[in-house]
């Protein structure tokens, strides 16, 4: 299995986004309607809730819906309101020393990753992010020096709310620091449980546990894996080694004489780096965000891709994954 990681620069939504939509919409549409059309909210409900909870995003949303052709299913999908449930693994950690650095591994199914790295300024603020759902964010940073990433929260509860990638897009478009991002995570409803790690240029960091059925929990911890305090889904916790990964990532931060380079190296080794690609939990990429510099490095064993907010190169990188590998999450 291969993934084409494409770096795309478009300051306002236009033909490049429209081209990506044309390439990806058929697959996204199958996923979005897999449970039947009636399982997803109506366009009116989607638009009403987006306008209520994230009104600043409405002009961009309407522009994208128009570029997508104005169809009902596409508009509902792009709202990311009450989407189908989806699960991942992921490890993320914040280094604070001579600079603030967010390091994360994204563990997910190869067939489901979009692989689009966008450099944009859709609402006036520069944003560099790994895309999901054509305009959502898996991880990214903005020109204010705020970085954010998501990890699955290890709970099966599903409720009425938005897919977390759109909330992360909202944060990067309109927030400037960790406190303002936390305020959004506290008020915008989310459809499943996720652990969101934040760090800003002033080295203020937090991990926020969000869920559809309880209030957001703010923790001043620099590490997040796939549980929210205690283990609530034992099978997933064992399958993804969430406790072991949390312990190792914390040890990499706390060890005497450790450096950010040691932390990054640890993320490229088992068990933080997973090869469980045939079970949908393989590490598809490692991202290293250096917020003060405005740079990101995407890493794979033997490959890397450097980008920045100010010096961005439109390019493609092909990465191959062995789906026959049972992996180290066993």
C-alpha end-to-end distance? 21 Å
Which residues form runs of ≥5 with pLDDT under 50?
Answer: none
Q: Give the H and E element order.
A: EHHHHEEEEEEHHEEEEHHHEEEE
Q: What would you report as the Rg, rounded to the nearest angstrom?
A: 18 Å
Write down the overall geometry.
Answer: globular
What's the overall average pLDDT, rounded?
95
Strand line-up of the largest beta sheet: 10-9-8-7-6-5-4-1-15
> Can you tell me the CATH topology?
Penicillin V Acylase, Chain A
Fraction of helical residues: 25-40%
CATH architecture: 4-Layer Sandwich
Beta-strand fraction estimate: 25-35%
* CATH superfamily annotation: Penicillin V Acylase, Chain A
Biggest β-sheet description: 9 strands, mixed
Number of domains: 1
Give me the secondary-structure category: alpha+beta
Total strands: the figure is 15
Question: How many helix segments?
Answer: 9
Q: CATH top level?
A: Alpha Beta
Task: Describe the protein's architecture and organization.
The protein has a single domain (1-330), classed as Penicillin V Acylase, Chain A (4-Layer Sandwich). It is 29% helix and 28% strand. The chain has nine helices and 15 strands. The chain has helices at residues 15-32, 43-53, 58-67, 72-79, 164-174, 178-187, 234-240, 242-254, 260-267, and strands spanning 2-9, 91-96, 100-108, 116-120, 127-132, 136-142, 146-152, 194-200, 205-210, 217-219, 223-224, 282-290, 295-300, 303-308, 316-320. Strand 2 (91-96) and strand 3 form a beta hairpin. The chain is globular. The protein starts with a strand and ends in a 10-residue tail after the last strand. The model has no long low-confidence stretch (mean pLDDT 95).
């Amino acid at each position: 299995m291969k993934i084409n990681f494409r770096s795309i620069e478009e300051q306002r939504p236009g033909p490049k986004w429209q081209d990506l939509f044309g390439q990806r919409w058929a697959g996204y549409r199958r996923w979005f309607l897999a449970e039947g059309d009636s399982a997803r909210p109506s366009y009116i409900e989607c638009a009403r809730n987006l306008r209520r909870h994230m009104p600043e995003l409405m002009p961009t949303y309407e522009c994208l819906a128009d570029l997508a052709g104005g169809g009902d299913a596409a508009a509902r999908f792009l709202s990311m309101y009450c989407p189908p449930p989806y699960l991942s693994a992921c490890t993320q950690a914040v280094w604070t020393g001579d600079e603030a650095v967010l390091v994360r591994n994204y563990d997910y199914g190869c067939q489901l990753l979009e692989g689009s790295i966008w450099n944009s300024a859709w609402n006036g603020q520069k944003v560099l992010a790994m895309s999901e759902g054509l305009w959502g964010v898996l991880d990214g940073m903005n020109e204010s020096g705020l970085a954010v990433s998501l990890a699955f929260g290890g709970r099966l509860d599903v409720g009425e709310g938005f897919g977390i990638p759109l909330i992360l897009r909202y944060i990067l478009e309109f927030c400037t620091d960790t406190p303002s991002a936390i305020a959004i995570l506290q008020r915008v409803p989310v459809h499943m449980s996720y652990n969101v790690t934040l760090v800003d240029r002033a080295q203020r960091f937090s991990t926020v546990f969000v869920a559809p059925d309880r209030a957001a929990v703010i923790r001043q911890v620099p590490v997040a894996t796939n549980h929210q305090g205690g283990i609530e889904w034992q099978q997933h916790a064992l399958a993804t080694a969430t406790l072991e990964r949390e312990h190792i990532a914390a040890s990499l931060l706390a060890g005497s004489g450790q450096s950010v380079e040691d932390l990054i190296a640890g993320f490229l080794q088992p068990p933080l780096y997973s090869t469980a690609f045939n079970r949908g939990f393989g590490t598809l990429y490692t991202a290293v965000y250096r917020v003060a510099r405005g740079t990101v490095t995407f890493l794979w064993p033997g490959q890397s891709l450097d980008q920045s907010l100010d010096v961005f190169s439109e390019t493609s990188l092909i990465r191959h994954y062995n789906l026959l590998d049972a992996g180290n999450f066993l």
